[in-house]
């Protein structure tokens, strides 16, 4: 099976800033109990593909039990962006293996980025990293990633069966499934369990062995 369109997750695949964002959340939340912070830290690392607004809301609503209104969440999202801005803009966080693959193939396939990162920040970051030219579109949140991909399919009249989403989280897998496109996990061994229970799902150990022209070897049910 080959694919004509690739949708890339950003953080955890092309770029690795999960640890920086974790530290940013810790500064944002301030002096909370160790138990509350540990619960959020676990949630953060297991919830790739979810926007920072959703994560902040989850922390206050489900961990602290003190829900915030939408305006309060939006204000904290802006504050969080300021906290991480200086550390985030660094080319050292680029995944060189993935970037090398993208640079070698972007002229032959439509590549798109669909991320849960804040859209305006994502656009600026990709420009800073000098990778914008490799993608036909770079879209962040809002809206949620599942809607970003749905809109992508509609705007370009893509055939879902010809598309694959490459991501590092279970939420990326759910996004792909809801939009009827294939999914390839990467950089998260826990995703290998999906291969045993779902069709058109596979796992990439290394992009050095990955070939878009023939992806059959990456799918358990092909």
Can you tag this structure with a few keywords?
HAD-like_sf, 222 residues, EC 3.1.3.18, alpha/beta, 9 helices, HAD-like_hydrolase_sf, six-stranded parallel sheet, phosphoglycolate phosphatase
Strand percent estimate: 5-15%
Spell the H/E element sequence: EHHHHHEHEHEHEHE
Secondary structure: helix percent: 40-55%
The biggest beta sheet is recorded as: 6 strands, parallel
Radius of gyration: 17 Å
Total number of strands: 6
Category from helices, strands and their pairing: alpha/beta
Distance between the termini: 8 Å
Count of helical stretches: 9
Identify the strand order in the major beta sheet.
3-2-1-4-5-6
Q: Globular, elongated, flat, extended or rod-shaped: what is the shape?
A: globular
| Low-confidence sequence ranges | none
Whole-number mean pLDDT? 91
Any chance you could write out the topology, listing elements then pairs?
Blueprint: E1 5-8, H1 18-29, H2 34-46, H3 52-63, H4 70-88, H5 96-105, E2 111-118, H6 119-129, E3 137-141, H7 145-156, E4 163-167, H8 170-178, E5 182-186, H9 192-195, E6 201-204
Parallel strand pairs: 1-2, 1-4, 2-3, 4-5, 5-6
Give your account of this protein's structure.
With 222 residues, the chain is of the alpha/beta class. Helix content is 46%, strand content 14%. The protein is built from 9 helices and 6 strands. The protein has a 6-stranded parallel β-sheet with strand order 3-2-1-4-5-6. Helix 7 packs parallel to helix 8. It is globular, with a radius of gyration of 17 Å. The mean pLDDT is 91.
